[in-house]
Amino acid sequence: MALSLIPPLTDGPISYQAIYQPAQTGSFHNNNMAALCRGRHRWKRTNCLHVLTRNLSGIYDYDLVVIGGGSGGLACSKEAARLGQKAAVLDYVEPSVKGTKWGLGGTCVNVGCIPKKLMHQAALLGTAVKDARKYGWQISGPICHDWATMAEAIQNHVRSLNWGHRVQLQDKKVKYLNVKGSLVDEHTVRGLTKAGKEMILTAKNIVIATGGRPNYPIGIPGAKEHGITSDDIFWLKKEMVLSSTRRGSDVALECAGFLTGIGLDTTVMVRSIALRGFDQQMAGLITDYMATYGTKFLWKSVPKSVDKLSSGALQVTWTDTRTGDEHKDTYDSVLWAVGRAPETKALGLDQLGVRLKKETGKILLGSDESTSVPNIFAFGDIGEGRPELTPTAVKAGKLLARRLAGLSAELMNYDNVPTTVFTPLEYACVGLSEEDAEERHGKDGIEVYHAFYKPLEFIVAERDASQCYLKVVCARGGEQKILGLHFTGPNAGEVAQGFAMGFQCGATYSHLLQTVGIHPTCAEEVVKVNITKRSGLDPAVTGC
Ligand code: FAD
Ligand code: NDP
Questions:
Q1: Keywords, A to Z (predicted)?
Q2: Between the CA atoms of 295, 296, 297 and 301, what dihedral angle is there, to the nearest 10 degrees?
């Protein structure tokens, strides 16, 4: 046993406490170990593993090797290092079908949350400039938007984040390797550089956090050749003059929202419903709002082909599934947003027996993020049944690092995760949709309080507030435990974040009523809500 300094398990400033723990990893014969583990022969590898499992720490290159340097992988490896573990993170970006590449940080930083929210902000500013006239700003001439300026500013910010992540890893003593990782066995990872150079790393534990990549639809001629995905749109240097955003879920609606907002003629084709899995009344309000502000929707339609015309325009052919009729129209760009596939191809999971869910291809996990193979863990977008969200990946990664360091037994709680869809009218929610609450508790087992309200900032600007709505879904009877909270309106994510804490504390409708509002805000409408759906009374909020 050796005396070492281990920081306490908090996210705050680190103060050190002395505790005893087994000696940390040594590197005295790493090269020999690596050579052994490269084992060309099965029996050799088995012998090698036998040695490894008997010696545990002190024999591997690292305590922890994380494959994937996205939201989850970075959080996990940094936390491990903070707790005194020797950690390495491997991150490698395979260029998109269109050849788009980016740096360290994964989906969120490069091709997800961050550039998306900034483009959403660009669109909101356009609306604000229009509102500004009503508030007395003298803006002469038409308002126009320049894609190149926006893209350059956002791409520069993303590059600064890439750099920031590299610096942080260095500061926190996490070894960063820009290599593609695959598994050799439960303690060995093979890394391959872009130039094809191979390296072997051994670790007591291996964590897979390789996320996912956007799908292209199968069986649609021209789809790959002429279409782009969310892996490309944020890195375009030139404007998409007209765009057709395909299919109707999170990515599609958010992209269509900001494209419309910056003045582009945008159409969304929806095969079935918008925002599957979300409360459908709220999904309807979002798409109604988008339609009012210019986004076109082709409902119940499936694409058939994409052809490039001699003019350079893309001709999209689709079928309206309600009538069976075929239609054609031309667009400048086609963006596919038909879901994402887990990034498992390069990992070699099947040789090791890591079990996947057949239908989704994602890794099957225990509540402690363990896979079917000892010492191999996974979480984030790659994990079956895990929310595809950054904060859950980050939190799960930190908790896993703490458990693997033997300093905590706390598991990730995936219940009541709040989220926001950044459409032009934002939608935030936490807990159950009305449909799910009804299914679990029965129609008579729930009480839904709701309100249509007018954000003050909309009134002077004479903006239509018909879709600004909130509902609180409660268990009926007793203290009326809150089961779900849904809100559309400005800054919806900011509104919902605080209420999400209430959920963790088991908030009830009585608690809501005891809460004093902050005036004048949109969030105060949540604590004032008092009309039930069951009553049939008009839920429109009037007056101050
Ligand atoms: P990722 O962030 O995808 O990181 C995985 C990393 O591993 C990548 O860098 C990948 O290149 C690398 N990798 C893959 N294979 C290998 C290998 N073999 N070797 C080495 N490296 C490898 N979530 C939110 O919470 N809020 C939002 O507003 C939001 N908006 C989004 C918008 C879009 C357009 C998209 C696509 C997603 C959005 N998400 C949002 C989801 C969020 O980005 C993901 O849930 C999150 O990034 C998942 O983190 P992860 O660590 O699991 O994987
Ligand atoms: P989703 O799985 O949410 O939606 C995919 C859409 O594509 C659905 O409308 C689906 O239709 C349709 N679709 C899929 N396959 C086909 C097909 N073969 N033919 C026709 N239509 C098809 O994927 P997204 O890419 O939009 O988002 C992935 C995840 O990323 C989300 O689940 C979310 O967790 C995360 N994300 C989070 C955001 C946020 O927090 N703000 C923003 C963006 C993404 P159907 O419903 O009919 O199956």
A1: Disulfide bond, FAD, Flavoprotein, NADP, Oxidoreductase, Redox-active center, Selenocysteine
A2: -140
For the stretch 222-280, pLDDT in tens is 999 999 999 999 999 875 544 555 556 789 999 999 999 999 999 999 999 999 999 99
Q: Of 368, 371, 370, give the one whose Cα is nearest residue 356.
A: 371
Question: Is residue 475 within 8 Å of 441, Cβ to Cβ?
Answer: yes
Which residues have CB under 6 Å of ligand 2? Answer: 217, 247-252, 254, 271-273, 276, 302, 337-340, 387-389, 419-422
Task: Give me the phi and psi of 214, to 5 degrees please.
Answer: -65, 145
Strands 419-421 and 427-431: antiparallel
What is the residue whose two structure tokens read 């105060």? 524
Q: Please tell me the predicted confidence (pLDDT) of residue 252.
A: 94
Q: What is the pLDDT of residues 351-397, one digit of tens each?
A: 999 999 999 999 999 999 999 999 999 999 999 999 999 999 999 99
**How far does the centroid of ligand 2 lie from the alpha carbon of residue 339, in Å?**
4
Q: Please report the pLDDT score of residue 248 as a whole number.
A: 60
Could you say which ligand is closest to the alpha carbon of residue 111? 1
Burial profile 458-481: b = 16 or more Cβ within 10 angstroms, e = fewer: beebebebebbbbbbbbbbeeebb
Report how far ligand 1's centroid is from the alpha carbon of 72 (Å): 8
ipTM for the complex? 0.98
pTM of the entire structure? 0.90
3-class DSSP state of 181: strand
Instruction: For residue 292, give the 3-state DSSP assignment.
Output: helix
The token pair at 20 is 């005893």
Predicted pLDDT at 244: 56
Asked whether the beta carbons of 261 and 250 are under 8 A apart, the reply is no
Q: What is the distance between the terminal CA atoms of the chain, rounded to a whole angstrom?
A: 67
pLDDT score, position 141: 84
Are 267 and 245 within 8 A, CB to CB? yes
Q: Three-state SS for 167?
A: helix
SS3 of 264-282: the string is CEEEEECCCCCCCCCCHHH
Helix boundaries (H) for 172-205: none
- Residue with CA closest to ligand 2 atom 35: 388
Amino acid at 184: V
Rg of the Cα atoms in the chain: 26
> What pLDDT does residue 331 have?
93
> Where does 309-397 show beta strands of DSSP type E?
314-320, 326-331, 333-336, 340-342, 376-378
pLDDT value at position 360?
A: 96
Smallest CA separation from ligand 1 atom 49, residue:
71
Low-confidence ranges of the chain (pLDDT < 70): 1-58, 239-248, 544
